[in-house]
């Protein structure tokens, strides 16, 4: 397995693939072509024998000069529980530190228990939202109406 | 009317508004919260008496150091044909020049004749795609399967 930068040509392969990985949900709208053109230097592909088995799309915040943001991460269903997301995050941390970013943020849904556990294990802390549900601090309607979100933040050492 | 930078708090107002402006289509997925957090310094709101009547969401390309990209532009239906998009574009050009960007790119659909005429009038040229339809150079499947696109490019003086 190897990790490389995202390329423009990955779009045609990855865009239909992520819908498959999410069991037929239309996820590809969340990953428009612009990320494959303009944020390639902080976005990562993991391959196994030339096949894409994972990706991380992230960027350096343009408005917050010490922050980087992880937008979208996916792992092929057959390759889960093999620390692939962890390896992608670790490489992302390494890359953004080279751009002098020491804060990494990301957003997840309060219902996504796997994501919450993963980010907690990776050393992210939850930012204090406006309500608490099951010990989880939540931002009401952060992603739009009825779209509560958890905001995760990690300080890089 | 005045033009100001996009703010985080605009999301809750603008996100449902754009669906209205596009006649009930779900457009807000194309404008996720991340733009309101991390690309505020190159994104613009036009207001009239405190009401949002137009916006331009754009960014400095992270991978292409001389490029800026216009992602999404909208004008309130009651305020169209008043050069509001032109004013937003002109301010965007001014802003990105301050970040040493001299190329502005954007993408549109071959069926969007209003957008094609607008960009041509604004001095954008079409990049050479892989096929020509009605004298328009088109990139096949650029935005995904059956999603042909025109790529516009303008050199700033």
Automatic annotation (TrEMBL), chains A, B:
Gene3D superfamilies: 3.40.630.30
SUPFAM superfamilies given in the database record: Acyl-CoA N-acyltransferases (Nat)
A Pfam family per the record: Acetyltransf_1
Chain segments annotated as coiled-coil in the UniProt record: none
Gene Ontology molecular-function annotations: acyltransferase activity, transferring groups other than amino-acyl groups
InterPro entries: AcTrfase_GNAT_prd (IPR017255), Acyl_CoA_acyltransferase (IPR016181), GNAT_dom (IPR000182)
Domain N-acetyltransferase, first and last residues per copy: 1-145
CDD domains: NAT_SF
Protein name, entry field: N-acetyltransferase domain-containing protein
